[in-house]
Every structure is written in structure tokens, then in C-alpha cells.
Design brief:
- The chain has one domain.
- The radius of gyration is 13 Å and the shape is globular.
- The chain is an all-alpha fold.
- The protein has 4 helices and no strands.
Length: about 90
Amino acid sequence: MPTQKTIKAAKRAKKQGKSASTQAGEFVREEMEKLKSGDGPESPQQAIAIGLSRARRAGVELPPPKKGKGTEAVRKRAKRDLAAGRKQARKRS
């Protein structure tokens, strides 16, 4: 679960009109900090994947990877995460 500080930073970036990848960067940064402290993912690639997934689930409109950039399973999972984030955003409003 992302911290409130991370969610607020992403919302602030959205309010400033920054891109979805910049908003998601806050979540990736949080995972990288966990990686460095030793109680998170085991590799930087995992940290990035987890950060992007959490960003999508938190409501960042980050599209899934294009065909050829990731496996079918990755694209499918990203679509599910994006749908979950949209559903959660509707619940909150």
C-alpha cells in the first residue's frame, strides 16, 4: 500500500498538469527506497513494476505497455490494475 505522502505527491503533480509517467514516478521512487533499505523488492526491475502497478491502482491514468514492449500477461495485468484504479476513483467521488 502506498503511503499517503506518495499519493498526495502524485495528486499534486496531476493538479500541476504533469504527465502520467511523472505522477507514477512518485510510486516508483517509494519502491526504490524500499529496495535500498532491504525490505522491498529484490531488483530494480521489480521495484519499477510494483511502483507502476500501485500507481495504476491508485488512479493514475498510466496506459498499459504497447504490444511488443511487454508480455501479454504484463499488458493484461496492467489493464486490470488500470480498471481497478478507475473503479476506486469512482467510489471516492
